[in-house]
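To illustrate this point, we now present one chain and its tokenised fold:
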Amino acid sequence: MASLEERVAQLEATVANLNDHIAIRQVIASYGPTVDTADCTERALKLADLWTQDGVYDIGGFKRHTGRADVASAFEGMHFEMIPEGCAHFMGLPIVQVDGDAATAISYSAVFRPETDGEHYYPWRISCNLWTFARVDGRWQIAARVNRLMRGDKDTIDMLRVIDTIKAEAQPK
């Protein structure tokens, strides 16, 4: 049987890992409400603060953005115009793998936009997301987010297959 010290150390490691998972999920979950309020440059910069200083946002079908200022600029124009319409970004529950001060997650996301009647919504964009995170000054930040439309193409399916590695790592021992 393990000593009390060994058991306490194992418990501390488990709690630290769970806290990391929760913190990363909170970053992903906060993306939706934050982006849905990004109707001006100031708010877009607040959203970009979720990324590391040199973080990458690769938005499939649009453009790859690097650095917070460039990430914030991704939302100018069409996105700013969507906010008063009432668009809604839904972030699916991610599968997360933590490795020290780095982490990987995979999830789905959906953007809904209102129909012309203003009462009904339609799914405008359904995507998968591959996230990488870095712990910077004790805070989890997005190092990169790769977003791809769910079109069944090889690149998207290959990206989703990261689940094989994450799922295998997540199984109890």
